[in-house]
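Worked example 3 (structure in, sequence out).
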């Protein structure tokens, strides 16, 4: 198996959020994590790529226009902002790009930035340094064409003998061309479809690191065996996997020198009844895989993880189901909002965005609502983040005075939560008043935000 060498990737980081089973919360995590990372790193350009045919991530980011028409459908059907190349039109979506690439490659006179949307121009609540390669429901149809072209012979394919590699790395080339622009500090997050289709393979081949969200329900040895077999070829659950290995992604990736991402974090969502002894055999299996194939994990060379506990401290972050699935977390996605309210500085001016990445702004599609583009980038009200030098640094003591007090004290602290963390203003699309949420839900939203801080800080690790 080939894995990504960070030195060869002309960007600061690229992360695939993937699990080969649905229901693990990939899209919700991608949404909140990318916004958190963008707010914490205003000097970086954050690119989100929606590779799921449901386009839930794109809908959450862009929302609807003033006529209550969703932007994603209008962009995907080229009713809005179609890209014209020669006599052809292409949607400014991931499908549009893949359609162009598979028919003509990536011409030198096509700037891939023209496919990107500056999210803040559609949704003023979100940071200005956040960009989107929009999802498209037609991606599964495009996938059939891509698979056919990827397997064409050299005499037929426009890519010659490199057809498989060229199609598989098409998204990686897209990212690389953007990252190569002078002055851009690019970080990429890809919401990857849970299948193992060509679309997922293109997404995985584009990234250098893998964030793997799992749940207790998915935590069984067979599930991990299948995942490791499909992506890396490490385990073979049955002779069928070995017999048909020539058709597998890992085998063909090695054959064509396509490098695969390293596992950076396993994000385990647990229910309230879970104990440390639950799924012990599964964790021991994962640790055995690590010991045999450490090159598949993004671990510092100086670290020598000898025990399962050491491995889990380095690679596993636990997220309680109550924290990740609470109503405020979900409502923020539905209402296209950051998790915690951002407070606008009354004295803010253009200097507030002096460090924001602006190299992509000139080619982004403006919203029809001109007032959105005039909104200043809001300032998040948060405490210090964990140290970036430790992937699993202890959580900051943010709002500990709220979380550990008695019930009476918690009630007294509700104004602190509302004012400093979750207070809503007229410009926030999270319109429900906080009074409809219980104190526990508010605290769980704060805890989830702290977990996002912890994950975001781990991304600064090499």
């Amino acid at each position: 198996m080939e894995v990504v060498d960070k030195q060869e990737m002309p960007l600061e980081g690229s992360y695939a959020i993937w699990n080969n089973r649905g229901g693990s919360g990939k899209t919700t995590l991608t949404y909140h994590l990318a916004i958190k990372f963008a707010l914490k790193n205003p000097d970086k350009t954050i690119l989100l790529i929606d590779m799921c045919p449901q386009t839930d991530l794109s809908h959450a980011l862009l929302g609807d226009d003033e006529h209550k028409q969703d932007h994603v459908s209008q962009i995907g059907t080229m009713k809005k902002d179609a890209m014209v190349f020669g006599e052809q039109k292409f949607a400014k979506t991931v499908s549009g790009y893949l359609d162009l690439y598979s028919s003509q490659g990536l011409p030198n006179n096509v700037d891939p930035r023209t496919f990107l949307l500056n999210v803040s121009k559609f949704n003023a609540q979100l940071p200005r340094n956040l960009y989107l390669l929009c999802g498209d429901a037609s991606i599964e149809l495009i996938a059939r064409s891509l698979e056919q072209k990827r397997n064409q012979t050299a005499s037929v394919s426009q890519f010659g003998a490199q057809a498989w590699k060229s199609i598989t790395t098409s998204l990686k080339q897209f990212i690389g061309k953007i990252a190569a622009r002078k002055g851009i500090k690019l970080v990429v997050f890809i919401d990857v479809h849970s299948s193992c289709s060509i679309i997922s393979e293109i997404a995985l081949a584009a990234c250098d690191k893998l964030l793997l969200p799992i749940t207790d329900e998915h935590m069984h040895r067979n599930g991990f065996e299948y995942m490791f077999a499909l992506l890396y070829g490490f385990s073979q659950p049955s002779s069928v996997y070995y017999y048909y290995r020539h058709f597998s992604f890992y085998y063909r990736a090695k054959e064509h020198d396509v490098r695969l991402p390293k596992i950076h974090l396993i994000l385990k969502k647990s229910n309230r009844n879970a104990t440390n002894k639950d799924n012990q055999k599964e964790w021991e299996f994962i640790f055995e895989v690590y010991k045999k194939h450490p090159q598949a994990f993004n671990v510092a060379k100086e670290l020598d993880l000898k025990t399962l506990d050491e491995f889990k401290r380095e690679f596993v972050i636990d997220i309680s189901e109550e924290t990740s699935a609470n109503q405020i977390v979900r409502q923020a996605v539905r209402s296209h909002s950051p998790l915690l309210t951002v407070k606008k500085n009354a004295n803010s001016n253009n200097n507030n965005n002096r460090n924001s990445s602006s190299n992509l702004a000139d080619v982004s599609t403006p919203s029809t609502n001109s007032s959105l583009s005039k909104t200043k980038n809001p300032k998040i009200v948060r405490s210090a983040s964990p140290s970036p030098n430790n992937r699993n640094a202890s959580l900051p003591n943010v709002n500990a005075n709220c979380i550990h007090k008695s019930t009476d004290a918690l009630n007294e602290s509700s104004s602190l939560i509302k004012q400093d963390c979750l207070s809503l203003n007229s410009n926030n699309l999270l319109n429900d008043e906080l009074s409809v949420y219980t104190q526990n839900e508010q605290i769980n939203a704060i805890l989830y935000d702290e977990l996002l801080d912890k994950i975001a800080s781990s991304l600064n690790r090499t």
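Notes: Residues 1-9, 342-358, 361-433 have pLDDT under 50 and may be disordered. The chain is about 40% helix and 10% strand.
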